[in-house]
């Protein structure tokens, strides 16, 4: 039973809904180590101000390593105390040599340590997310340049609309991710601050040097200083999770695009497949887009957490652990979900299968109907826009109802024949002649965006 559980966890969670690096940040050991890091930083900051002996601060720092503590004792003590931090404080106190333990957690309250620890882990998680987004942007920029003039059908309302280029598609995607890069960077300044409010947000327990101590702790941890205590204001974490939700929405969009483009009937782009990869247990021909499907599932799950993140802002009085505890669950889950989703997308787009021939052939399946706008606008000169629109709409309807090529019905119409020479009409019905400024838009998008 244990073997089966481990196998299933590896298969369904780690492989599809997370990645090893992000799980290394958001596991129980790193959770406790982040709290120990805060306790050590507090001790060093107090020593720098002469509040506690320097030797005691050094002893606390040396002892504040989870591998030096008995985790079995910690687990038993947690069960007895029904408290998240007290067992760790007790264990650290006991691990310190001499009388150094008497200075552990001096003046602090549980939420100061826990929230600051969560900030430290969020910073590590954001570093990973930012790096992943950067890599995805680089990949999409390369694809945009490579396929700058590769024609394909643009689709609106689920139907072919006009010719475009795959490069422009990729440029649009990378531009959206560039905006997420900016959001991630802007949000860091607000999120990455210490929590030093003390028991009720007045900092009373930190003594007369409270503000200096706050600055010293922040410097030790390379964090900012919050203007006010924030035990009951979770907007920083809520914003973080909302930004992750935005990234997740874009991730799902990209995954769904490749999912659609890889359909048998479309076949324009597809998820890479390893030689050993199995698409179906019964149908050997299947090349299922399993990575894209995992991204879709992970992104949808993450976005569903955003309302809960907002709910954590509705805290009562000066501290409300009813909403605070929600973050204990949301932060790790959301970071793990986005870390896995972005890793899958980097794999997909890094070796994306692109079929320019199929893109080009798909432009021809409507028999020229995707060029109806080009014909209509050309006829607008001699006929007027409204009359030209009605004329082309009628010809389109006749083409569809009579199952005749659009070009043939156009050539047979006397009004069209009188307004357009046959050679000019042939040029108008060439999809490559009507991709507009797609290539220039790619150039502008890549020129105006920052290369990570």
Whole-Å distance between the termini? Answer: 46 Å
What fraction strand?
Answer: under 5%
Rg over C-alpha atoms, rounded to the nearest angstrom: 30 Å
Please give the share of residues in helix.
55-70%
- How would you spell out the order of helices and strands? HHHHHHHEEHHHEHHHEHHHHHHH
Please describe the biggest sheet, giving its number of strands, its sense, and whether it closes into a barrel.
2 strands, antiparallel
Structural class: mainly alpha
* Number of continuous helical runs: 20
Average pLDDT taken over every residue: 92
Strand order of the largest sheet: 1-2
Note the overall shape.
elongated
Low-confidence stretches: 1-13
Question: Total number of β-strand segments?
Answer: 4
Protein name: Adenylosuccinate lyase
GO molecular function: lyase activity
InterPro entries: AdenyloSucc_lyase_C (IPR019468), Fumarate_lyase_CS (IPR020557), Fumarate_lyase_fam (IPR000362), Fumarate_lyase_N (IPR022761), L-Aspartase-like (IPR008948), Pur_lyase (IPR004769)
Organism: Polymorphospora lycopeni
Description:
There is one protein chain. With 452 residues, the chain is mostly helical. 65% of the residues lie in helices and 4% in strands. The protein has 20 helices and four strands. The chain has helices spanning 2-17, 20-25, 28-48, 54-63, 71-81, 86-95, 110-146, 166-191, 210-221, 235-261, 290-303, 306-311, 321-350, 356-362, 372-383, 385-402, 406-412, 414-419, 422-428, 438-448; strands at 151-156, 159-165, 269-270, 353-354. The strands form two sheets. Strands 1-2 form a two-stranded antiparallel ribbon. Helix 3 packs antiparallel against helix 4. The radius of gyration is 30 Å and the shape is elongated. The two termini are 46 Å apart.
């Amino acid at each position: 039973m244990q073997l089966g559980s481990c196998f299933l966890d590896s298969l369904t969670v780690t492989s599809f809904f997370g990645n090893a690096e992000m799980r290394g940040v958001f596991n129980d050991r790193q959770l406790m180590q982040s709290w120990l890091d805060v306790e050590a930083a507090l001790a060093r900051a107090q020593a720098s101000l002469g509040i506690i002996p320097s030797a005691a601060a050094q002893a606390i720092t040396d002892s504040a390593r989870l591998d030096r503590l008995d985790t079995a004792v910690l687990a038993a003590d947690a069960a007895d105390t029904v408290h998240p931090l007290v067992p760790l404080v007790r264990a650290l106190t006991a691990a310190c040599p001499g009388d150094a333990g008497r200075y552990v957690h001096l003046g602090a309250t549980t939420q100061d340590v826990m929230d600051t620890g969560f900030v430290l882990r969020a910073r590590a998680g954001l570093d990973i997310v930012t790096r992943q987004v950067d890599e995805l942007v680089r990949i999409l920029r390369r694809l945009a340049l490579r396929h700058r003039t590769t024609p394909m059908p643009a689709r609106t309302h689920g139907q072919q609309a006009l010719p475009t280029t795959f490069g422009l598609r990729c440029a649009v995607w990378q531009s959206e991710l560039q905006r997420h890069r900016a959001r991630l960077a802007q949000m860091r300044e607000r999120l990455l601050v210490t929590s030093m409010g003390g028991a009720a947000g007045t900092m009373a327990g930190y003594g007369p040097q409270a503000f200096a101590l706050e600055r010293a702790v922040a410097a030790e941890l390379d964090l900012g200083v919050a203007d006010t205590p924030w035990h009951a204001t979770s907007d920083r974490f809520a914003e973080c999770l909302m930004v992750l939700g935005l990234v997740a929405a874009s991730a799902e969009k990209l995954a769904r695009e490749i999912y659609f483009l890889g359909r048998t009937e479309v076949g324009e782009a597809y998820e890479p497949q390893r030689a050993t990869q199995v698409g179906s247990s019964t149908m050997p021909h299947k090349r299922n887009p399993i990575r894209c499907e995992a991204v879709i599932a992970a992104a949808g799950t993450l976005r569903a957490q955003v309302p809960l993140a907002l709910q954590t802002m509705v805290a009562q009085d000066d501290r409300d652990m009813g909403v605070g505890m929600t973050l204990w669950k949301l932060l790790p889950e959301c970071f793990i979900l986005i870390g896995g989703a972005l890793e899958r997308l980097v794999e997909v787009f890094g070796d994306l299968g692109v079929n320019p021939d199929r893109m080009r052939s798909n432009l021809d399946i409507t028999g020229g109907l995707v060029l109806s706008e080009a014909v209509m606008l050309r006829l607008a000169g001699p006929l007027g826009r409204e009359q030209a629109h009605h004329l082309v709409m009628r010809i389109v309807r006749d083409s569809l109802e009579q199952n005749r090529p659009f070009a043939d019905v156009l050539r047979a119409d006397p009004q069209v024949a009188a307004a357009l020479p046959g050679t000019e009409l042939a040029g108008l019905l060439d999809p490559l002649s009507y991709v507009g400024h797609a290539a220039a838009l790619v150039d502008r998008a890549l020129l105006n965006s920052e290369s990570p």
